[in-house]
Amino acid sequence: MTDHKTNQPRIAWAITGSGHYIEECLEFMLTLENVDLYLSQAGEEVLKMYGIDLNEIRQKLPVYRDKAASSPPVGHFYKGYYHTFVMAPTTSNTIAKCVLGIADSLVTNLYSQAGKCRVPSIVYPCDIAPEMETTAPGGKVMVYPRKIDLEATAKIRDFEYTEVVESVDELQAAVLHRIKSLA
Question: Hey, is 122 helix, strand or coil?
Answer without folding.
Answer: strand
